[in-house]
Amino acid sequence: MAHSVSAWASARKNERNRLRNKAVRSEIKTWTKKLADAVEGKDTALARQYFLAATKELDKSAKVGIYHRNTVDRKKSSLAKLMNKLAAAGGAAPKA
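The structure assignment produced for this chain is given below.
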């Protein structure tokens, strides 16, 4: 338990950051699942939209320190592989 004023303030800040980090990570997982479903359904336009949203959120999360930049690069690479799978299946190759 925190005993000083600064420790209390730090605990409040840590909790705020924890909740923000949890929300952002959850949102990124949601975009990733939606992208996978769109690729499964061969919906190029929807997949592109989800891909752009997911990469944008990943980049923002790296900027504020939620994810390490290497982790973000790895996740973006796996999303790009999904998009390439869709392009190879007959859709146009979407550029990001």
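Interim note for the steering committee: The chain is about 80% helix and 0% strand. The radius of gyration is 18 Å.
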